[in-house]
Amino acid sequence: MIHTLSVARRVLTQLAHDRRLLALSVAAPLAIIYLLKLFLDTMPPGFDVARYAVPVAAFLVHFLAFLLCAIVLVQERTEGTLARMLINGYRRPEILGGYLLGYLGLATLQAVAALIEVLILFKLSYPAETLIALFIVVWLLAIASVMLGIFISTFARNAAQVFPFIPLVILPSVFLSGLLVDVTRLPQLLPLFYANQVIQILIGPNGSLGPGAAMSRYWSLTAWRCSWWRRGPWPRRSNRRPFVPLPPVQGTRSNCHLRCTHVRSCYPGYSTPRQQLIWWERCEPNLKTPKGGATHGKLGGSDCGRAGVR
Amino acid sequence: MDAIVVEGLSKQYGKIAALRDLNLTVAEGAVFGLLGPNGAGKSTLIKALVGALTPSSGKVRVLGLDPLGDRRDLRRRIGYMPQEPALYSDLSARENITFFARARDLPDLKARVDDVLKLSDLGSRADDPVRTFSGGMQRRVSLACALVHRPRVLFLDEPTAAVDPILRDRFWRTFREMAATGVTLFISTHLMDEALLCDQVAVIRAGETIITDTPHAILARGKARLTLHRGSAIERQTIGGYPEDLAAALHARGLAADITAVDVDRDRLEAVIFGLIAPKEQEARA
């Protein structure tokens, strides 16, 4: 643990010495959020600005934390300091832990600055509980981003080789986050998907989960499920049957909440047949999956399509 | 006791053999010079010795420990100065040395850092960022990082490359002083004249050992060209490289009083080593 803190301290000292990097890392998301404000100002009245502005703040922290961590780690490798650290006695988990802690410091600064700017610029107001939960979600997303940066850095042998990974990670993150399209039709693949999902709940009507719940739900969603590895992130084509829409189910958040554990089951804003099915499944404990198990709290997006044909 | 033992060490990078069946032993407290041209496998060998890479085959022991299996124990006892400075340019010399020293869990960290800073003679610049340092100063900081925990075996990968003669001389004096205290130094270099400062030298080429001997024994393998000025006549003779060969040649001539000057042009160590490498190069080309 002492070695982990030593690496984190070194990373933070480097950041403190490089004031230009520190200033740019905080100023860049702020500038982008301001430009987003100029764009969203052109939208017609009644447009849900918060739906985009808050996730964009999270996305910027995600992007910068990922990029900075990946490039700095590749530099460590090319300049020989990584090998030197290992030969001097720092172990791999200590180095990774130190990087995580160090860059989380910067990500925290970015998250606070970006969220405050979003709240001020877009004149959004949430209860303190929601704000804390939002911050925690962005902060947890930053952990995933730093880890993603560390992961990507293993494929690059020099800083230039990181650049192809930027669009490879960032563009799918945006496409698949649910920021642009309906979240339920997307594969649950990248961290931003989960962060956006929780953010939408938090900023939605009656949307406060509370910091503890946000944290646990985020992790339950972000921990890419073991089944992901078994069957891949997408539904198996061979098992898919035509989808039969079910009639809309009327329900309220309060009467469902006690019986459901899946985050989407308690969200009353579903309108598509698939969303209604998910809603219905979550509120109907006797429904059986094709495998014969109870669906309650266990179905993922890929299971719902199969369950719907019965 | 041998500080370093290498037996049948090979390292393969795809189709390229970086090291081929290498055998070495280095006595404790010796200054061992590893000589060879660029790409001979010097850095690969040092990395295998410090446990930074896994050999394809063979056995390596440093202070009786396996660099990979006994990594934790060994890393407390060895120091490594890589070929490149390998420092954090945003941090000061003191911060760099302190960071690398923290991995060793030293009890008197601050005192040790002050000691090596004094040794590296950075003066008032110890707290300046390393990026503002000259190449030589960066090498000194890099050496200080390798020395701070007082290792028993020190691996130096081309420590004097691109270093001015004054600093090189200071480095070598430091190395000799350390060897006098029982520290084993394993130094790679492609500067042949530095080999004369070592206790033992191994010459490698294309991952193979060509010769392992003391520098003077290697030097003696060369020839000396003897020129005798007798009146207006000049006599030239090629003799062996040992001092005894010169004495024998002069005694054969009775060292007459009319011999006014004797010039001996002995092969430099560089020429001897090139002479050893050249046949291998020709074989490789053939």
Most residues in contact: chain pair = A-B, 19 and 27 residues
Q: Write down the domain tally of chain A.
A: 2
Rg of chain A, alpha carbons: 21 Å
Strand content of chain B: 25-35%
Order of strands side by side in the largest beta sheet of chain B?
Answer: 5-6-7-3-8-9
Task: Outline the structure in words.
The complex is a heterodimer of chains A (310) and B (286). Chain A is mostly helical and 310 residues long. In chain A, 64% of the residues lie in helices and 0% in strands. In chain A, helix 2 runs antiparallel to helix 3 (49-78), helix 6 (128-153) packs antiparallel against helix 8 and helix 8 packs antiparallel against helix 9. Chain A is elongated, with a radius of gyration of 21 Å. With 286 residues, chain B is of the alpha/beta class. Chain B has two domains: 2-218, P-loop containing nucleotide triphosphate hydrolases (Rossmann fold); 223-285, no CATH class. Chain B is 36% helix and 30% strand. In chain B, helix 3 (93-102) packs parallel to helix 5 and helix 4 runs antiparallel to helix 5. Chain B is globular, with a radius of gyration of 22 Å. Chain B starts with a strand and ends with a helix.
Top keywords for this entry?
heterodimer; A: about 300 residues; mainly alpha; about 65% helix; elongated; disordered C terminus; B: about 290 residues; alpha/beta; Rossmann fold; 2 domains; 6-stranded mixed β-sheet; 3-stranded antiparallel β-sheet; 12 strands; about 35% helix; about 30% strand
Short description:
The complex is a heterodimer of chains A (310) and B (286). Chain A is mostly helical.
